[in-house]
Design brief:
With about 110 residues, the protein is mainly α. The chain is about 70% helix and about 0% strand. It has one domain. The N terminus is likely disordered.
Length: about 110
């Protein structure tokens, strides 16, 4: 069996999920999504869920946080999917879940 067939070598030399989450391209999108979620929830808590005529600073910051994480996620996928597919897919699923969690209040509250 060669190094690239099965075993630890094909799975990123045994890189653990925790070690991969510590990579900036893995945790930055998670942090950005959580910051966007906190921003929306904080804004709704302070000002209510009423739709405003003009988008405010909170809306623009949310949009920037959500949009700027896309290239980071793409970089992570390009780099880590070939090296450690199982761990990379788990982290991509976490990133997608965090992004959806940040989008949910905007969708459900019609902001």
């Amino acid at each position: 069996m060669s190094d690239m067939e099965g075993g630890a070598a094909a799975d990123g030399d045994g890189m653990s999920l925790l070690a991969m989450v510590k990579k900036p391209s893995a945790f930055l999108p998670l942090a950005m999504s959580l910051a966007a979620l906190a921003l929306v929830l904080g804004h709704v808590t302070l000002f209510g869920a009423a739709r405003e005529a003009d988008e405010g600073t909170a809306a623009h910051l949310w949009q920037l946080l959500m949009a700027l994480q896309l290239p980071i996620v793409a970089l992570f996928a390009i780099k880590w999917l070939p090296l450690a597919p199982r761990q990379a897919l788990l982290i991509l699923a976490l990133q997608a879940g965090a992004g959806l969690a940040a989008m949910a209040p905007v969708f459900f509250l019609g902001l």
